[in-house]
User: Which sequence fits this backbone?
């Protein structure tokens, strides 16, 4: 069975500092990989996704993620955070040829001035 | 262009009552997915519906839970005789067509947070 682990429940970062959110997955083959963000009162919004090819993926809002097969990881990064990046971030995986997503428990990001 | 709408956003029920959660997909979308997030866990797939059809309910508990997506109106997730363990956030997603994750993005609503007293 596939599973997703986000080791950090809560991260606090200063505005302008860099951010890295960790995601590890367990799956028999390389699945589709996703990062979503949920701002207060909003639905989950897709930041980026990885299916194949270049292991460094660019997304919206200045985010990027790197797929590392050897570590079964798909960590999300942003070089310089803005106060508006305060939100909950979810890593998700889905099998090839399927539509079911499995999510991590999420990481809440707080941005301090 | 409104996104996926869910209501109510918060719902409180006493044990034994019924809970009805509604999901209006994005305009033009005819495929709906329900996910449940138990406390301190990730979202887990429950059921996939197309208009008037249940396509896959493999993630739905066998008892007390049901889902529908009628020809007209929103999709409804119904939980009968709720218990404390049903307290969770329930998310709905929609897509424009039937397809795999590679070619068919799911758009998520804000979720309904159900609390069972």
Assistant:
């Amino acid at each position: 069975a596939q599973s997703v682990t986000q080791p950090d429940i809560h991260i606090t970062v200063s505005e302008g500092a860099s951010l890295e959110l960790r995601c590890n997955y367990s799956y028999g083959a390389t699945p589709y990989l996703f990062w979503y963000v949920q701002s207060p009162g909003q639905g989950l919004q897709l930041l980026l996704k990885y299916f194949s090819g270049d292991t460094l993926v660019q997304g919206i809002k200045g985010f990027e993620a790197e797929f590392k097969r050897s570590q079964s990881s798909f960590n999300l990064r942003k070089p310089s955070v803005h106060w508006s990046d305060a939100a909950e971030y979810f890593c998700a995986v889905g099998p090839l040829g399927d539509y079911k997503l499995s999510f991590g428990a999420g990481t809440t990001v707080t941005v301090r001035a | 262009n409104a996104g996926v709408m869910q209501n109510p956003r918060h719902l409180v029920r006493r044990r034994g009552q019924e809970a009805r959660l509604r999901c209006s997909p994005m305009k033009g979308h005819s495929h709906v997915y329900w996910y449940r997030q138990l406390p301190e866990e990730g979202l887990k797939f429950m059921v996939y519906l197309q208009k008037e059809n249940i396509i896959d309910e493999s993630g739905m508990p066998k008892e007390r839970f049901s889902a529908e997506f009628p020809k007209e109106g929103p999709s409804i997730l119904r939980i009968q005789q709720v218990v404390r363990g049903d307290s969770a956030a329930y998310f709905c997603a929609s897509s424009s067509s039937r397809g795999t994750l590679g070619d068919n993005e799911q758009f998520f609503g804000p979720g309904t947070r159900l609390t069972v007293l």
